[in-house]
Amino acid sequence: MDFQNTINLRHSVRSFEPKKVPKTILKSLIKNATKAPSSGNDQNWKFYVVSETNTRNKLAKLLSKSLNKFKGEFDKLSPKLQKITNEFYSDLGGCQNIIFAYIPKRLNFRDSAIASISCACQNLMLSATNKELGTCWVGTFKGFEKEINKLLEIPKNEELVASILIGYPSKDFKPLKRMKKKISDVLTFI
After folding, report:
1. Helix or strand or coil: residue 167?
2. Domain containing 77: what range?
3. Cα dihedral 54, 14, 164, 68 sign
4. CATH of the domain at 101
5. For the whole model, what pTM was predicted?
6. What is the mean pLDDT of each run of 10 residues along the chain (190 residues)?
Protein backbone atom coordinates (compact mmCIF):
# COMPACT_ATOMS: atom_id res chain seq x y z
CA MET A 1 0.00 0.00 0.00
CA ASP A 2 1.22 3.51 -0.78
CA PHE A 3 2.35 5.31 2.41
CA GLN A 4 0.13 8.38 1.88
CA ASN A 5 -2.81 6.07 1.26
CA THR A 6 -2.03 4.22 4.52
CA ILE A 7 -2.08 7.52 6.42
CA ASN A 8 -5.35 8.56 4.77
CA LEU A 9 -7.01 5.20 5.52
CA ARG A 10 -6.02 5.06 9.21
CA HIS A 11 -9.12 5.68 11.32
CA SER A 12 -10.18 4.60 14.77
CA VAL A 13 -12.20 1.42 14.31
CA ARG A 14 -14.90 0.70 16.87
CA SER A 15 -16.59 -2.29 15.27
CA PHE A 16 -14.62 -5.49 14.70
CA GLU A 17 -15.17 -9.01 13.42
CA PRO A 18 -15.02 -11.50 16.33
CA LYS A 19 -11.80 -12.99 14.95
CA LYS A 20 -8.34 -13.03 16.51
CA VAL A 21 -5.35 -11.66 14.67
CA PRO A 22 -2.68 -14.40 14.30
CA LYS A 23 0.31 -14.06 16.63
CA THR A 24 2.70 -13.94 13.65
CA ILE A 25 0.98 -10.78 12.38
CA LEU A 26 0.86 -9.22 15.85
CA LYS A 27 4.57 -9.95 16.28
CA SER A 28 5.37 -8.28 12.94
CA LEU A 29 3.39 -5.19 13.99
CA ILE A 30 5.32 -4.95 17.26
CA LYS A 31 8.55 -5.37 15.32
CA ASN A 32 7.56 -2.38 13.16
CA ALA A 33 6.60 -0.44 16.28
CA THR A 34 10.09 -0.91 17.69
CA LYS A 35 11.63 0.69 14.61
CA ALA A 36 10.31 4.05 15.81
CA PRO A 37 12.70 6.73 16.99
CA SER A 38 13.32 6.83 20.72
CA SER A 39 14.95 9.46 22.89
CA GLY A 40 18.61 8.63 23.38
CA ASN A 41 17.88 5.35 21.55
CA ASP A 42 16.69 4.05 24.95
CA GLN A 43 13.90 1.96 23.39
CA ASN A 44 12.28 1.97 26.82
CA TRP A 45 9.05 0.31 25.77
CA LYS A 46 7.32 -2.92 26.54
CA PHE A 47 4.27 -4.32 24.76
CA TYR A 48 1.81 -6.79 26.25
CA VAL A 49 -0.54 -8.43 23.75
CA VAL A 50 -3.80 -9.84 25.08
CA SER A 51 -5.41 -12.47 22.86
CA GLU A 52 -6.61 -14.97 25.48
CA THR A 53 -10.42 -14.89 25.55
CA ASN A 54 -11.01 -14.98 29.31
CA THR A 55 -8.55 -12.13 29.96
CA ARG A 56 -9.97 -10.12 27.06
CA ASN A 57 -13.49 -10.53 28.48
CA LYS A 58 -12.35 -9.32 31.91
CA LEU A 59 -10.79 -6.25 30.27
CA ALA A 60 -13.99 -5.58 28.31
CA LYS A 61 -15.99 -5.72 31.54
CA LEU A 62 -13.54 -3.31 33.15
CA LEU A 63 -13.80 -0.85 30.25
CA SER A 64 -17.60 -0.94 30.39
CA LYS A 65 -17.34 0.57 33.90
CA SER A 66 -15.55 3.62 32.51
CA LEU A 67 -18.78 5.18 31.26
CA ASN A 68 -19.77 5.69 34.90
CA LYS A 69 -16.29 6.84 35.92
CA PHE A 70 -16.19 9.45 33.13
CA LYS A 71 -19.92 10.25 33.09
CA GLY A 72 -19.42 14.02 32.84
CA GLU A 73 -17.47 13.66 29.59
CA PHE A 74 -19.86 11.04 28.24
CA ASP A 75 -22.86 13.32 28.85
CA LYS A 76 -21.26 16.00 26.63
CA LEU A 77 -21.36 13.73 23.57
CA SER A 78 -24.10 13.97 20.97
CA PRO A 79 -26.84 11.32 21.22
CA LYS A 80 -25.40 9.58 18.14
CA LEU A 81 -21.91 9.41 19.69
CA GLN A 82 -23.36 8.27 23.02
CA LYS A 83 -25.03 5.34 21.23
CA ILE A 84 -21.82 4.41 19.41
CA THR A 85 -19.82 4.74 22.64
CA ASN A 86 -22.26 2.55 24.61
CA GLU A 87 -22.11 -0.18 21.98
CA PHE A 88 -18.32 0.02 21.77
CA TYR A 89 -17.66 0.07 25.51
CA SER A 90 -20.03 -2.81 26.22
CA ASP A 91 -17.77 -5.33 24.44
CA LEU A 92 -14.73 -3.52 22.94
CA GLY A 93 -16.60 -3.39 19.64
CA GLY A 94 -16.07 -7.15 19.35
CA CYS A 95 -12.28 -6.73 19.16
CA GLN A 96 -10.36 -9.84 20.23
CA ASN A 97 -6.85 -8.39 20.62
CA ILE A 98 -5.55 -5.60 22.86
CA ILE A 99 -2.03 -4.25 22.95
CA PHE A 100 -0.89 -2.44 26.09
CA ALA A 101 2.20 -0.23 25.76
CA TYR A 102 4.28 0.48 28.86
CA ILE A 103 7.34 2.51 29.83
CA PRO A 104 9.46 2.22 32.97
CA LYS A 105 8.18 4.31 35.89
CA ARG A 106 10.71 7.03 36.49
CA LEU A 107 11.01 10.70 37.22
CA ASN A 108 13.86 11.54 34.82
CA PHE A 109 13.05 11.94 31.14
CA ARG A 110 9.48 10.61 31.52
CA ASP A 111 8.19 13.00 28.82
CA SER A 112 10.81 11.68 26.40
CA ALA A 113 9.80 8.08 27.12
CA ILE A 114 6.13 8.92 26.51
CA ALA A 115 6.99 10.66 23.23
CA SER A 116 9.10 7.67 22.16
CA ILE A 117 6.45 5.05 22.86
CA SER A 118 3.84 7.25 21.19
CA CYS A 119 5.96 7.16 18.02
CA ALA A 120 6.12 3.37 18.35
CA CYS A 121 2.34 3.17 18.72
CA GLN A 122 1.87 5.28 15.59
CA ASN A 123 4.17 2.88 13.69
CA LEU A 124 2.10 -0.01 15.01
CA MET A 125 -1.21 1.54 13.95
CA LEU A 126 0.02 2.50 10.48
CA SER A 127 1.49 -0.99 10.03
CA ALA A 128 -1.87 -2.48 11.02
CA THR A 129 -3.67 -0.25 8.52
CA ASN A 130 -1.21 -1.36 5.86
CA LYS A 131 -2.26 -4.97 6.60
CA GLU A 132 -5.96 -3.96 6.37
CA LEU A 133 -6.43 -4.26 10.14
CA GLY A 134 -8.24 -1.73 12.27
CA THR A 135 -7.02 -0.10 15.48
CA CYS A 136 -8.41 2.11 18.19
CA TRP A 137 -6.31 3.84 20.86
CA VAL A 138 -8.46 3.60 23.99
CA GLY A 139 -7.40 6.22 26.51
CA THR A 140 -9.94 5.31 29.18
CA PHE A 141 -8.06 2.12 30.07
CA LYS A 142 -5.50 4.41 31.75
CA GLY A 143 -8.11 5.13 34.43
CA PHE A 144 -8.01 1.45 35.37
CA GLU A 145 -4.26 0.96 35.36
CA LYS A 146 -4.10 -0.68 38.82
CA GLU A 147 -6.76 -3.24 37.89
CA ILE A 148 -5.13 -3.94 34.51
CA ASN A 149 -1.69 -4.33 36.08
CA LYS A 150 -3.04 -6.81 38.61
CA LEU A 151 -4.94 -8.81 35.97
CA LEU A 152 -1.99 -8.94 33.56
CA GLU A 153 0.64 -9.28 36.32
CA ILE A 154 2.54 -6.22 35.10
CA PRO A 155 5.68 -5.41 37.14
CA LYS A 156 5.22 -2.50 39.56
CA ASN A 157 8.02 -0.53 37.93
CA GLU A 158 6.10 -0.10 34.63
CA GLU A 159 3.62 2.63 33.64
CA LEU A 160 0.76 2.19 31.16
CA VAL A 161 0.85 4.74 28.33
CA ALA A 162 -1.35 3.31 25.58
CA SER A 163 -4.05 0.71 25.04
CA ILE A 164 -4.68 -0.20 21.43
CA LEU A 165 -7.42 -2.47 20.16
CA ILE A 166 -6.42 -4.27 16.98
CA GLY A 167 -8.44 -6.54 14.76
CA TYR A 168 -10.38 -7.04 11.58
CA PRO A 169 -12.87 -4.20 10.96
CA SER A 170 -16.46 -5.39 10.69
CA LYS A 171 -17.75 -5.65 7.15
CA ASP A 172 -20.15 -2.76 7.71
CA PHE A 173 -17.54 -0.49 9.34
CA LYS A 174 -17.58 3.10 8.18
CA PRO A 175 -15.28 5.64 9.84
CA LEU A 176 -16.96 8.52 11.64
CA LYS A 177 -16.79 11.69 9.62
CA ARG A 178 -14.76 14.11 11.65
CA MET A 179 -13.65 17.54 10.71
CA LYS A 180 -9.88 17.95 10.78
CA LYS A 181 -8.43 21.35 11.48
CA LYS A 182 -7.19 23.33 8.51
CA ILE A 183 -3.44 23.23 8.01
CA SER A 184 -3.40 27.02 8.48
CA ASP A 185 -4.78 26.49 12.02
CA VAL A 186 -1.94 24.20 13.07
CA LEU A 187 1.07 25.39 11.05
CA THR A 188 3.19 28.50 11.46
CA PHE A 189 6.33 29.10 9.44
CA ILE A 190 8.86 31.23 11.26
Report:
1. strand
2. 3-186
3. negative
4. 3.40.109.10
5. 0.90
6. 88 93 98 96 95 94 78 81 81 95 89 95 97 93 90 96 96 80 94
